[in-house]
Amino acid sequence: MYDVIIIGAGIVGTTIARELSKSKAKVLILEKGIDVSMGATKANSAIVHGGFAEKHEALKGRLCYKGRVQFKKLDEELNFGFRETGSLVISMEDDKEPLEKLMANGIKNGLDDLEIIGPDRIRELEPELTHDVKWALYCKGAGICSPYEMAIAMAENAIRNGVTLKLEHQVTGIEKDGDVFRVSTDKEEFQGKFVVNAAGVYADEISKMVGVNNFEILPRSGEYILFTRGTGDPINTVIFQLPTKYGKGVLVASTYYGNLLIGPDASDEGGKDDTSTHIERVAKIYQQTKALYGKINSKQFIRSFTGIRARSSTDDFIIEETEVKGFINVAGIQSPGLTSSPAIAEMVIGILKDAGLEWEDNNEFDPYRKPIVTKKPLQPLKDIKQFIELPLGSKDRIVCRCEQVREDEIVDALHRGIRIKTVDGVKRRTRAGMGWCQGEFCKPRVIEIMEREYGEKIDPGFDIEHSGVNRVQKSDLLDYLKSLEEE
After folding, report:
1. Phi/psi-derived region of residue 214, left when phi > 0, alpha when psi is between -120 and 50, beta in every other case
2. Is 49 a catalytic residue?
3. Residues 228, 292: Cα–Cα separation, whole Å
4. pLDDT, tens digit, for every residue of 349-360?
5. For the whole prediction, is pTM greater than 0.85?
6. Could you say which of 49, 56, 131, 169 is catalytic?
7. What is the DSSP string of 127-196?
8. C-alpha distances in angstroms, 364 versus 180, 249, 297?
């Protein structure tokens, strides 16, 4: 019998689990995927938002800033990668009123680090932007993080502190028998006193299992383009365009590791699992960004990807105990869900306590989780060639030459309480395969280590089945952009 069963192991579910592990409650996470952070958590903008864009009347407006201010401490404890960069919402128009409205809303939400700046200050912060920019709203405390590493860190730390994680357990039914929930999966049945529904795009379907049908999840896809490491170095802040009804618009940012990231667009077409990318959409994102940042180079493109936002029919976060006592919905967590996740977890703990969860502090709670990899400058290939050529098992052997990931880092990732079944899972923990060649060189080397450490064969086809989607290829994008220029 569990005290709390959490459905979903994205950033929200894992953060709630970690917060619960500060108590002596017996906690279970059920996740249908083969790993944590397999949904929107691994495919988003990775932005720690300021907290000024969402209306104060909305729950997401009130939680964003409360979550944002916790990131520095959380990163110190969990080592997932966070950097405060500041953000700019830019305008090409003389009229400052839209920016002034955003600033006023941000102040309502509790922010104290906002200012509207003109061309000279914009140029100081972002010298490479087009000179057509007239005004910008500057938020000093916004930043970037590594979202999938954050969820992995939350899960690892929660497990270390007593939480149980069951992967590849798809919830198929929920029944309440007195004060106990019987949660059935495609593998087995579990019993719990409380259920927290953090199932992302499938939260509405999980909610219907207990007869609560007061919202729908309307998936909205957003496509992105990622460029090779170092291309983001000229970008100092997170750069937004003025938001529209579809969201914050196409952004320009450097990832935590220095890759230029642009996107997303927004489309309400497609299903909850359609993470394919489309050349017309990717090219449009590229062209929109080119008008803003002229140094973007299509030849440095390495990957396109799509994230599916769990937009609710209420267009706001849904965080509440339902009419079914003990069943708590945490649904519709679209942007700024990543930023809000620490505050969401705190809110859920409060709801659970009000609903009758007996809280007893876990005096042995350990908040710290050591990093698997740390950000480091890349060395010239000629200087590391000898380490690349070392045989399997050698000290200091480099497995991934693009990101210069060592064998001992991969071994560490494999033995942290979560069984990794795919090369993609290793990639998200170590960056092996995230470089220029996108794993062509290191994939067989990673598999070799996985097979040695786990004592079983790793099927590359299984990796493709669970991690691969239809993505725009570099050669196709270059040809398409060239054809547009010729028209």
Report:
1. alpha
2. yes
3. 19
4. 999 999 999 999
5. yes
6. 49
7. TTS-TT--EEEEETT-EEE-HHHHHHHHHHHHHHTT-EEE-S--EEEEEEETTEEEEEESS-EEEEEEEE
8. 28, 44, 51
